[in-house]
Design a protein that fits this description.
Layout: E1 2-6, E2 14-19, E3 23-25, E4 31-41, E5 45-63, E6 66-83, E7 86-95, E8 101-111, E9 117-123, E10 128-130, E11 142-144, E12 146-156, E13 163-164, E14 174-179, E15 182-183, E16 188-190, E17 199-208, E18 213-219, E19 225-233, E20 245-247, E21 254-261, E22 268-273, H1 282-285, E23 286-292, E24 296-301, E25 311-315, E26 319-327
């Protein structure tokens, strides 16, 4: 019997904005480079965005009343945010930082996963607690084990620099994040090295499902404004290994996984096995591996390897698991 579950819920997925037009602005003060109009969400959704910054300048992306991304940047920018249900105006803002702003190929879409939990984009005011609920995702497969949590944070201090701090840092108008009581090292940060009032950072981690996890922002300057969104989901991929579920099915069955691009198309990795007492790398720790960009399939039949003794490990920041399946014998 073959069982499958489409954990990336394609029926609710939609490309909301797709604008290839090039927009240019030349101004020393912050202002609107372009308004992309309104989007309306009937339910809380994960938002993906992608655009091309052609010339280096200071930019920031505003959705509704809050900012989801900002930086002194150039090149292709991608990102995610979690939004509550509602109607939001989408604006790209710019100010000169060595030259005029020039941006095009803007896309924004919404989607939903099974087993997701989130805190909608908003100004940070107090500790955020999130729990990804435990369930047997498909009952044929096993039980959920860990979820990837993606934390997106934008900050500014009016008329001054703002910087995100790692443990041990002491920076101008510093902003730090503690998860479950411990300060973290940001996965990536765009610092405000000159007073453009625009700093951005994100953090990805793997945390247990079925338990509440706390996220606390600390600011050196009480006047610093911080906007934040968080999403947790077992089917997201991160820059760290994640075990989305505990395998539990009949010996001799064949496991199927499909991994896809999400807000980026990274090299995605899926591995079945376990790191040994002395490790010689993936080729001897894992019985089966799959790696690649685009849509990646990983299939493995548990003929001699014990289902109960191995783990499923996935990785690939910007990607996701879209489908799980099992041919049970």
């Amino acid at each position: 019997m073959v069982y499958t579950e489409q954990v990336r819920q394609l029926t609710s997925e939609e490309n909301l904005i797709n604008d290839s037009t090039e927009y240019t602005r030349n101004n020393a003060a912050w202002g609107t480079l372009h308004s992309y109009g309104n989007i309306t969400l009937s339910e809380a959704s994960l938002i993906l965005f992608k655009f091309w910054v052609k010339t280096t300048s200071a930019y920031r992306l505003k959705i509704g009343s809050n900012y989801v991304w900002g930086g002194y940047s150039t090149g292709v920018i991608t990102g995610i945010a979690y939004l509550s249900a509602g109607t939001y105006t989408v604006l790209m803002e710019q100010r000169n930082a060595g030259g005029s702003g020039d941006l095009q190929d803007f896309q924004l879409g919404k989607l939903k996963f099974s087993d997701q939990a989130g805190s909608g984009l908003a100004a940070y005011s107090a500790q955020i607690d999130l729990t990804v609920a435990q369930r047997s995702p498909p009952s044929f497969f096993g039980t959920l084990k860990n979820a990837v949590f993606a934390v997106m944070v934008w900050a500014k201090t009016t008329g001054a620099q703002t910087n995100f701090e790692n443990p041990g840092d002491s920076l101008t108008n510093g902003v730090s994040l503690a998860v479950d009581g411990s300060q973290i090292t940001w996965t990536s940060r765009v610092q405000d090295t000159t007073p453009y009032e625009n700093a951005f950072a994100y953090y990805y981690c793997s945390l247990s499902v079925g338990s509440s996890h706390s996220f606390v922002i600390s600011k050196d300057n009480a006047a610093t404004v911080v906007d934040i969104s968080i999403v947790g989901c077992p089917w997201l991929l991160a820059n760290v290994d994640n075990e989305p579920m505990t395998l539990d099915f009949a010996q001799g069955s064949t496991l199927y996984l499909t991994l896809e691009p999400l807000n980026a198309d990274p090299t995605k990795n899926s591995k079945i096995g376990k790191v040994r007492a002395v490790s010689y790398g993936d080729s001897t720790d894992f019985y089966s591996t799959a790696s690649g960009t685009g849509i990646l399939s990983h299939t493995y039949t548990f003929e001699t390897v014990s289902v109960a003794d191995v783990t499923l490990v996935v990785k690939g920041l910007g990607g996701c698991i879209s489908m799980v399946g099992l041919d049970e014998r």
